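Researcher: Re-running this chain for the archive, since the previous output was lost when a drive failed. Same request as before.
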Amino acid sequence: MDRFTTLTPTNNQHQQLFRPPYGKITSSQAKALQKLGYTIVMWDVLSADFDASINTASCLQNVLKNTEDGSIIVFHDSVKAAKNLFYALPKVLEYYTKKGFEFKKIKT
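Model: Regenerated structure tokens:
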């Protein structure tokens, strides 16, 4: 656990967020990450954008069907997910913005 990649926004604020791959993490891993100052972020909606067997509309419907107030949705920034991500994410943001939802930064 000595190698982590963190995204640095253009304002150069260092974000120490960690999403466990596949949602799996042991208590000893969690403790080590927290000791290093990381906030562990879990989610409740997996977009399935990475799944080549689903089309863009199915990806979108999966997110809309399973999201509720307070949800954290996982989209992937990868070549494999690009088609579904670029289709679904803007529509999800537009849909929930029109419904009055707000999108907030995860507090660390």
